């Protein structure tokens, strides 16, 4: 009886914790048109399995992306070709970082790990930047790619893409 109720409690705690945990940015607001250090927290594994692969897709308008090394993990970069070239440092650029991938490391389901990058954010106050994340755990994967309508709550979705909202301090 006692064992059964402890298990019951653990299951309830896990479900409740799951809705609020997921894959989230440490800070979910940023100043538009600035360099920003984004820290993505991966709060659990896939169905109890340890995480060994994290891919973060950069939304449109995010440029000059530099990933941070996570000890014990390899980093690779996927480039994306732009429809319209952009100017960076006065030079025309046709390719930007499309996604960052950390692989080769591992952390258990009960722990979290943080994946960090710096990027220039678009000067687009009020916009919510949705970052699709693909999480891999051996043969299992979780795709955090549910994107809410602009004024809807992403956390109401089953596998929400983590986001950063561009909020100007001047209120414009
Ligand atoms: Cu979760």
From TrEMBL:
Gene3D superfamilies: Uncharacterised protein YcnI-like PF07987, DUF1775
InterPro entries from the UniProt entry: YcnI-copper_dom, YcnI-like_sf
Domain of life: Bacteria
Domain named YncI copper-binding: residues: 22-166
Signal peptide (from-to): none
Pfam families with a match to the protein in the record: DUF1775 (PF07987)
Name listed for the protein in its UniProt record: Nuclear export factor GLE1
